Amino acid sequence: MRTFLAQHGLAARDAIARFGGQIIPSTFNVIVIGVALALPLSLYVAMKNLGAVTMPMDAQPQLTLFMEPEATGEDAEVIGKRLAKHAAVGAQRFVSRDQALENLKRSPGMSELIGDLGHNPLPDAWIVSARDHDPAALEALRAEAAKWPRVDLAQLDTAWARKLDSAVQVGRAIALLVAGLLAFALAAVTFNTIRLQILTRREEIEVSKLIGATDGFIRRPFLYFGVIQGIGGGLLACTLVGLAAWGLNVQLGATLLSFAPGGALLGLETKETMTVLFAAGSLGCLGAWLSVTQHLWRIG
Amino acid sequence: MILLQGVAKRYSGGQTALRDVTLRIERGEFALLTGASGAGKSTLLKLIAAIERPTAGSVVVSGQNLGNLSRRAIPYLRRNLGLVFQDHKLLYDRTVFENVVLPLRVAGFDGREAAGRVRAALDKVGLLNRERANPVALSGGEQQRVCIARAIVHRPAILLADEPTANLDAAYAREIVSLFHAFHQVGVTLLVSTHDVTTFAPLAPRIVELRAGTITE
Q1: Residue B214, beta-bridge partner list
Q2: Is the complex ipTM more than 0.90?
Q3: Nearest-CA residue of chain A relative to B88?
Q4: How many whole angstroms separate alpha carbon B122 and alpha carbon B161?
Q5: Alpha-carbon span B123 to B117, nearest angstrom
Q6: Is 0.90 topped by the overall pTM?
Q7: What is the Cα–Cα distance from A23 to A34, expressed in whole angstroms?
């Protein structure tokens, strides 16, 4: 165990020394990785903010059940009881046809028009807000209620919310896709960096093999290098995204108060930052591993 | 200790280095491998160190048949060997000390014990005061001695040396011969390839001659 730790300590020290020894190319690699990772990361944060904007608004979407014109008050009551018992329903409010007419009359210019009509063309209506604000749940409730007896029409006023939600979903999918692509790029950048390092250290690798170094021993410092480079890039990406969120908050200031829930754009949480660093480190490690392993196989 | 049976080696280019070699070297023996350039001396040493694989025949080192040895097991075989190369194979981006400590690092020795062993090895080859030097700053003979120190620092049972005295003047060559004599006396098995038999003559070694890929003793 002590030997194991000592060997890892040596490999890590070797990797750090090598990173510091080539500080300029190392820094540029970190910048490439950092900027590449910042792209999907900022997209992710943007989607997180959009999602947060739609969340409180989802409280408002309502389902309106219009009764058939010839439906009676009893019919409406039956529907009311049914709604009250339904698990998906949060709150319900009855608007009678007379009430609706009164409301309409209050709108300027409408009273005369309605007076000319002679009868009330409006139906009774139930206005329902769902317990669960998930658009899919609302839609399910709508479809169900539309089939109830004497219900003429069930209408969701959340079409826009659904559209925004699906846009956020698409955005998230794109962020994931871009993240996947750039994760590949990160591994590739590391692969190439390590390949160049191997070329300059070919003699050392050859001699090490001749004196009994295992593949693991030879691989280890390169893996540490890949991890350091990956985490460096990840840190840079998180910093860039954090700075961008901060800059936007400063610049947009009060405007945001009306949109964002906390009056400010959300950045990355500690857990998310840790995930990014872990992923970047792992990808760096993977790129390095592939590079060294490929080389070791080639030299036999 | 080392046993070659019906060994042939043909390189992928079609060149035949060894034809039919059968050779047995006992524990603690001191054998000289001689022959003209291209007779297959280096190839034979490489087969014993599993740097090359034979095209036919079997090579057994310390009871291990190298033909059955997996890729992963080769490093552990090499840790029982000390290899001295004609071209030294030193690393010029680090000090003498760091060169010699390499086999110990590979085997997982920790700092203090490793340092002690490195100094003992450097002392044996008379370079204790040069441990901080870069190998580039050393003469050819000194570089060869660093290479020898690196080959013995982990106290291998077998020492394989490929032309250790080539390119050295007579005085340096004698130093190296006396070093090998000392190793032989503490029980190390030595197989040394050379075309310079006279330098080693004082040790009265067993002489194995390779001619056109086969052995004539």
Answers
A1: B211
A2: no
A3: A207
A4: 18
A5: 10
A6: no
A7: 16
